[in-house]
Predict the structure.
Amino acid sequence: MVPKMIRGFDDIPGALPSDGIPKDFDLSTVSFSDIAERVLSNLSEGDIDGSALWRDHFSLTGAVRTFFGGARIKKQWASYAQERHPHSFRAGGAMVVRPTLDSSWIDLPFTFLTSQRGELVGNCSGTISFVPSEGGQGWKVWMLKTLLENFEGHGNPDDPSPIFKESKVPAGGGDQLEHDVGVLIVGAGQCGLSLAGRLGALGVSYILLEKADEIGYSWTGKYDAVRQHTVREMNNLPFDRTYKASDPILLPAKIVAEGFKNYVEKYKINIWLAAEVESCMKSSEQPGWVIRVRKGEQEHLIKARHIVLSMGASQSIPNQPDIENAASFNGVILNIGTFKNSSRWEGKKGIVVGSATGAHDVAQDMLDHGLASVTMIQRDKTPVFPVEWIVAAQSTIYNLDIPQQVADRIAGTEPHKVSREILKSIFDIAFEVEKERFDALERVGFHVNRDMPLNDGVVLRLGGYYIDVGTSARVAKGDIKVKSRDPIKRFVVNGLEFESGDVVEADLVVFATGYQRDPRLQAASIVGSEVAQSMIGGKGFDEDGELGRIMMPAYPFAWLMGGAVSMARWNSRFIALQIQAELMGNPFPSCQWGDEGHNEIVTKL
């Protein structure tokens, strides 16, 4: 069962500051670096704006936490500082940030050190944002973003150089059938590959399993027309640019898979292809897992302290509705997982059920393969975002001029509410400017949700929207017919019957109705249903606007990973650091499971 999202974006605190910085403001007139270092070294409530936000990634809180309000931030900072002793703050140069027409602030990057668990020293970084005080006298902290970069003297998850110095046979290499590793990763999509690279950079032993016999099948195994709907530079795997500047801005599956293959070769990813998990049990001898894996004709026994399940959560198990009388239909019924292309149905009639990205891709494929008629069944109002809006927004930081590590720190550390309000403000204007574009869809019966911001669909709904790469024009033109606000009643011999009594004829019906969103459904196939159902999933937003359990273990010594490439790249660095700390005997609070390793997860907040 998918955990219920109790809070939405409108229920969590945070708003963009007004545009209080003059267009001709001279940064050199204020010593912002001195102010930043003074404030950070002795943070007081008087230094913080009442509407301030602080978001931390493991540097002080040992988790991903967001706090709202000057008093709360001061209290939490002081509490965590007693344990972590942040010091040696060094601020960089200031810059004015104007993300929207009516908002502005001053940003400064900074670095600092913390005392982590045991004798570990944390190298940390952050950004401090200032807005003018009321009355324009002085400056207040409006936003604070902090993160753990690495543990001093123990490698860096962003630096792959140790991989190239490695001379020993990787775990699982040679002829042995028994293996002992720090981490077993199941699933070699973007999440598995990202984490494998990070672990390799930190010198943590691992094996990456992939049940397919080729790298990149998580993309090439989908329908032929699938491609990424975010810009190329947002979709690199860790360390360096995975794709060439000459590659398409929206990468098709074939090029994505080629990038995955090149990454595996370049960073010596220890991957086993065509490897199936036959059993996975909690170890009775020591904390961790005992896994039996079938690879070709051989059965391998792997002992791993940590297991990471990265099998395409929310993108692997189609969510096909059960429609009455399906056996009577004379045509073919497919879903988004079994559909490849429409070439067999040239000159025939097609129906696609659904109206988000996958459904539009399928409908376009039907047109491209010459079906006589194509009908899209829209079950609810659909948010539509033109791809040129997406490209323009993402390319401001994800481009060939800004290193991806820098871009990730800009995007990845920002509080969810801030990111949402920036994009919403920009897109609200665009909706007004291009109103006719959406009115044209409404006139042919396609109902557009113009109220739901993109972040709500990405973060909370995990889909249900369409990034328009051109198919909306074919809908508006009438090439793709639309039937909406008329629920499907049942299949009939020659198509689908609706509650109104209408019948739409078809030879092919494709259900592009999304995927099951609970990653525990897939986890059960590896660790068993009892363990899977005990795993802790996302809890939605907490009172300050942070997603509960993000980047945290789902079960003792077990992790669930999923999401787009940018999320995989960012989350993997912090999961790798947590695993590294646990293996060194200095676990973060969420990884303190005791000697037996199978007690309940304890989270210190």
Remarks:
- The chain is about 25% helix and 25% strand.
- The mean pLDDT is 93.
